[in-house]
């Protein structure tokens, strides 16, 4: 097979025993594939019967010539080394690297994601990362949503990985976010202590639910404007989508967070195209020196512009 081929090509002669079978069933039998996979290859135009395109419910005759191209599918969990524009390096030493993650970048590969990743960027930029954890998430001790920007730390050494993993687990890491939320929370500062679990009706969403994982969010209002408030949020726990779920539960979703009930009209008015949520500060004990270190990330341009628009709105 040449390097230009898109996959493996197979030419098969239909045996007498499969006469009259549907093409997808015959393919599954001859190639050891599932019916679903066979049907998918047919629908992608990768199967020909006697030189012509074929439908999955067409029938095969003995002696028919079935030509199948089986594409090489990359593993969705493979780390693809690829330098990602916009990832800033805030700090780098032998044990940790602290980055400023832009929006639209996932922390590590996952089955539903084919875009750029932090892990892929670090591999592409020549960083050596701790080998603990599954291969696609080596060195990852915390996560930020694809749609959330800001500061995060990655462990480069085994020692740093275990120390930081424990620090996050024991809640000794200062995780400070700024969020622009609709309306004005009442009280202006407070704590949301409400368990979070997967949303019963949607795979990719979470919700406050009895029996969920304990989740604690502290917030205070920094600025109150006519349409929205800028909050400083301190995460005690670190559940997936925690701030977004808790703010939505308070009826003050992050501006632009349409997944969790934000008003699209307000988002459009202020030019917000994603949830207005940014990890501004991260503080922890350095795994090697034990000294307290803190790193900050300024607002990205899009969030800064929309905040300015909210400040000016009357």
From TrEMBL:
<protein>
    <recommendedName>
        <fullName>Pseudouridine synthase</fullName>
        <ecNumber>5.4.99.-</ecNumber>
    </recommendedName>
</protein>
<comment type="function">
    <text>Responsible for synthesis of pseudouridine from uracil.</text>
</comment>
<comment type="similarity">
    <text>Belongs to the pseudouridine synthase RluA family.</text>
</comment>
<dbReference type="InterPro" id="IPR036986">
    <property type="entry name" value="S4_RNA-bd_sf"/>
</dbReference>
<feature type="domain" description="RNA-binding S4">
    <location>
        <begin position="21"/>
        <end position="85"/>
    </location>
</feature>
<dbReference type="InterPro" id="IPR006224">
    <property type="entry name" value="PsdUridine_synth_RluA-like_CS"/>
</dbReference>
<dbReference type="InterPro" id="IPR002942">
    <property type="entry name" value="S4_RNA-bd"/>
</dbReference>
<dbReference type="InterPro" id="IPR050188">
    <property type="entry name" value="RluA_PseudoU_synthase"/>
</dbReference>
<keyword id="KW-0694">RNA-binding</keyword>
<dbReference type="Pfam" id="PF00849">
    <property type="entry name" value="PseudoU_synth_2"/>
</dbReference>
<dbReference type="InterPro" id="IPR006225">
    <property type="entry name" value="PsdUridine_synth_RluC/D"/>
</dbReference>
<dbReference type="InterPro" id="IPR006145">
    <property type="entry name" value="PsdUridine_synth_RsuA/RluA"/>
</dbReference>
<dbReference type="InterPro" id="IPR020103">
    <property type="entry name" value="PsdUridine_synth_cat_dom_sf"/>
</dbReference>
<keyword id="KW-0413">Isomerase</keyword>
